[in-house]
Design brief:
This protein is α+β, with helices and mostly antiparallel strands. 30% of the residues lie in helices and 24% in strands. Helix 4 packs parallel to helix 6 and helix 10 packs parallel to helix 12. Bound molecules: ligand EPZ. Ligand EPZ binds next to helix 1, helix 5, helix 6 and helix 12.
């Protein structure tokens, strides 16, 4: 079945998620492949004309959309479970279609590989989103330093290398900010450039290292990924590979919080412990128990009551911004006052209003949230504003008294692989219904699936 036909879930236009709180969770949950690795690595497919195989690809709307964008560029994709076979032999058109790109920022990742392989790329300028303006100036400046001419007009980024041999040149690049996307765009572009490229002040996120390992498995020469200095020696061509994507550390952290916020004991695998250092440290800080059961399995034992703590989001290895909303949900019920500072994105505290609707006591001052612990949350109708905010509302719903109804599920489906099924298998009581059914539906809680 081609990836473009396979959508993990139809757009949840008017469905809502109903959650009956206060259920204790129990059992084990399997963590899917990392969304933010899969999206960058799929774009990396454009670098190589040979067949190759990706394993542990999560089933998400964003992955399906990336597949649609790559297909529109001439790439062939076949999906079978969590395996995706890709062939980028015939890239038909160096222009990603606007109606698709506008729905998925990560499609901008196509610009580096297209430019490296073809010497030309036309990609719509990604717009902002709920959490911030999301500029791409660092991507553009880096490509220009590698010899690309980049024009931005009418919402399109036209990038091209002039001259008889349209090949990017190696360059020494300093990033004003350790941008994940810019690091990945420039690293991919440099794999086929003429000469050596150095990226200083590079992002160190695990997904950057995963992309570097993927490119190296195709014959690229990348050193230093995972540190703030990455050196890439350009090669003339890459070759096929069979590559396994790392587990999703943000999904794992979401389930760790689910265990803590419901005072439950659950285990999760596979995980990479080093990718969760900040999350584990904060959970232990507030009194939860986190045990490494095996090299790739964690067990969380929630305490009967948790203490407050302070969180500041930072580039890796600092506390991840993608885990901020989930931890805020947890801290609304801690004893004492926590402060959460969001330093990565300028507008990533929009879940505060919705958590307050559930009885939380949070005040926002600039990019800081002051979270005064309360003794309970109460279920309420709430609206998700972005991907990680939707996860935070699910977690709050698991802990709240009564029923929570969450709208805006398209955010959730973009970034979580069957979250409801996984929560239900742990004993949570939740179900997805069509919105119009909510009005007249008897509030009967669904039977809980048997815990395996
Ligand atoms: C990646 O986004 C992730 N997305 C985000 O995950 C994650 O939150 C973010 O990295 C930070 O870790 C994917 O990998 C697909 P950035 P990205 O470039 O690359 C500014 C999720 O929930 N900036 O590191 O867009 C930017 O405005 C998503 O899974 C520039 O100013 O993040 C932001 O303030 C959300 N100019 C900061 O850097 C640029 O050219 C961090 O952005 C690029 C970025």
């Amino acid at each position: 079945m081609s990836l473009t036909e396979l959508s993990s879930k139809p757009e949840a236009d008017n469905s809502v998620l109903q959650i009956w709180g206060k259920q204790t969770l129990k059992g084990h949950v399997k963590i899917s492949g990392a969304k933010n690795s899969a999206l960058a690595i799929m774009a990396g497919a454009l670098l190589c004309p040979d067949d190759f195989r990706l394993r542990n690809v999560p089933s998400l709307v964003d992955v399906t959309r990336m597949g649609q964008i790559l297909s529109a560029l001439g790439i062939k994709l076949e999906r079978n479970g969590d395996i995706v076979d890709i062939n980028a032999r015939d890239i038909g058109e160096s222009k990603a279609p606007y109606e698709l790109v506008s729905q998925l920022r990560a499609s901008f990742f196509a610009i580096g590989p297209m430019l490296a392989r073809l010497g030309v790329a036309r990609v719509p300028l990604p717009g902002g989103c709920a959490i911030g303006a999301r500029p791409v100036d660092l991507h553009v400046r880096g490509l220009q330093s590698m010899g690309a001419d980049v024009q931005i007009e009418h919402g399109m980024v036209h990038a091209y290398v002039t001259g008889p041999n349209p090949r990017l040149k190696g360059a020494k690049i300093y990033l004003d900010y350790p941008s994940v996307g810019a690091t990945e765009t420039l690293m991919m572009a440099a794999t086929l450039a003429d000469g050596e490229t150095t990226i200083e002040n590079a992002a160190q996120e695990p997904e950057v290292s995963d992309l570097a390992n993927f490119c190296n498995s195709m014959g690229a020469k990348i050193r230093g990924a995972g540190t703030n200095t990455i050196i890439i020696s350009g090669v003339p061509r890459l070759h096929s590979t069979d590559y396994n994507i790392i587990p999703d550390r943000v999904e794992a952290a979401t389930f760790l919080v689910a265990g803590a916020i419901t005072h439950s004991e659950i285990s999760l695998s596979p995980i990479v412990p080093d990718h969760l250092t900040a999350a584990i440290a904060k959970l232990r800080d507030i009194g939860a128990k986190v045990i490494l059961e095996d090299r790739d399995c964690l067990r969380i034992i929630g305490a009967q009551s948790h203490m407050a703590t302070d969180i500041e989001t930072l580039p890796y290895p600092g506390f991840p911004t993608d885990m901020q909303a989930q931890f805020m949900a947890l801290l609304t019920l801690s004893e004492g006052t926590s402060t959460i500072s969001e330093t990565v994105f300028e507008n990533r505290l929009r879940h505060v209003a919705e958590l307050n609707r559930m009885g939380a006591d949070i005040r926002v001052k600039g990019n800081h949230a002051i979270v005064r612990g309360v003794s309970m949350l109460s279920g309420a109708p709430v609206v998700a504003t972005d991907l990680r905010a939707s996860a935070a509302l699910v977690l709050a719903g698991l802990a709240a008294e009564g029923k929570t109804t969450i709208k805006g599920l398209h955010h959730l489906d973009r970034g979580y692989d069957n979250l409801e099924d996984k929560m239900r298998r742990l004993g949570a009581k939740l179900q997805r219904v069509q919105d119009d059914a909510v009005a007249d539906e008897a509030a009967t809680a669904p039977a809980t699936a048997s815990v395996e």
